[in-house]
Design brief:
Elements (H helix, E strand, L loop, with lengths): L4 H20 L4 H12 L4 H7 L9 H31 L20 H15 L3 E3 L4 E3 H4 L24 E3 L5 H9 L4 E10 L11 E11 L4 H16 L5 E8 L2 E10 L16 E10 L1 H6 L8 E5 L3 H9 L6 H4 L2 H4 L3
Parallel strand pairs: 1-4
Antiparallel strand pairs: 2-3, 4-5, 5-9, 6-7, 7-8, 8-9
Helix pairs in contact: 1-4, 2-4, 5-10
This protein binds phenylalanine.
The site of phenylalanine has 11 residues, from strand 8 and strand 9.
């Protein structure tokens, strides 16, 4: 008489359930081996059912064979899995050493540009300057026109300026903040403005399409070029020490008259001449000058009563001098090994 395949199938379902609950409870390798023998051993449950192959109908034989093989694989996989997990548990012995030092979370570091900008702010604030900000996306009016930069000036060229839609552009210097400040405030003015600027430069060791400037502006009655000199000298000495010298060379900017470029004596060789200053003893910082009366015309300041001076300052250059950094690109790569040195 052939045994009912249906009955065998339901018995196998019960066997599977029993295996699951027993294997879930396993605490050690010994118990696991017992389960393996009980279910998969030569005389184990699965083997017993293989013996029943002879007593089912010819049609059910392959089906039973299939089911049993699947069950065997399933049990084996589960036993292997438990074995691995018992092994990992035994490796740390289930013991957690609370006295071991933990893995410290990585802390972030401030970019040296930020450190330098904070220091510059602090120095100028001690000299009575307040800080202004302006948008990075500017109009042609603030970036050029109100600064007396003529329409055919090379800095307005597509090659130098990132133009956006609708007469907008990425500011090429912090000087537009001069205009924004004078528009909203009557003299006296004594401000600095720090921030990012953009120019179409191909990156190399000393050029970057993104860079930072500090702008300065002072407007009052009786302001003269000597005040500009004194201000920059006092700043340079607070930042780099009492022996720093500042020198001015005649130059031209559309928004200052007279204009100058100014240099700090080389802090590496104290002005004796070295590789950093190309043997000149001086490091170029930026431009400065007396505010051109034409600029006052754009902001309704009376040029008969007021005079002023303004200057720019490249933050990257100052940071490179201060920390001995030889490539401007380091500032923008956010390499942890670089950042954690400051
Ligand atoms: N804006 C000028 C530049 O980016 C620097 C400057 C600022 C010159 C203020 C004079 C006065 O080169």
């Amino acid at each position: 008489m052939a045994e009912s395949f249906e009955i065998i199938l339901s018995e196998l379902g019960a066997l599977e359930g029993a295996f699951k609950s027993e294997s879930d409870e396993v605490k050690g390798p010994q118990a696991l081996e017992e389960i393996r023998i009980k279910y998969l051993g030569r005389k184990g449950s699965v083997a017993q059912y293989f013996k029943k192959m002879g007593s089912v109908s010819t049609a059910d034989k392959p089906k039973l064979g299939n089911t049993l093989n699947k069950l065997k694989d399933e049990f084996q996989t589960e036993i292997d899995r438990i074995q691995v997990s018992l092994q990992t548990k035994s490796e740390d012995n289930g013991f957690i050493d609370l006295t071991l030092p933990g893995t410290p979370p990585q802390v972030g570091y401030r970019n040296p540009l930020m450190l330098v900008m904070d220091e510059i702010k602090e120095i100028f604030s001690s000299m009575g300057f307040s800080t202004e900000t302006g948008p990075l996306v500017e109009t042609e009016f603030y970036n050029f026109e109100a600064l007396n930069v003529p329409a055919d000036h090379p800095s307005r060229d597509l090659q130098d300026t990132f133009y956006l839609e609708n007469d907008l552009l990425l500011r090429t210097h912090t000087s537009p903040v001069q205009i924004r400040t004078m528009q909203k405030q009557k003299p006296p003015v004594r401000i600095i403005a720090l921030g990012r600027c953009f120019r179409k430069d191909t990156p190399d060791a000393s050029h970057s399409p993104e860079f930072h400037q500090c702008e300065g502006l002072v407007v009052d009655k009786g302001i003269a070029f000597s005040h500009l000199k004194g201000t920059l000298l006092a700043f340079a000495r607070k930042l780099f020490g009492p022996n720093i010298q500042v020198r001015f060379r005649p130059s031209f900017f559309p928004f200052t008259e007279p204009s100058a470029e100014y240099d700090f004596s080389c802090i590496i060789c104290s002005g004796k001449g070295c590789r950093t200053c190309k043997k000149t003893g001086w490091l170029e910082i930026s431009g400065a000058g007396m505010v051109d009366p034409a600029v006052f015309g754009y902001v309704d300041y009376d040029a008969e009563i007021y005079t002023g001076f303004a200057w720019g300052m490249g933050i990257e250059r100052i940071a490179m001098m201060k920390y001995g950094i030889d490539d401007i690109r380091h500032f923008y790569e956010n390499d942890f090994r670089f950042l954690k040195q400051f």
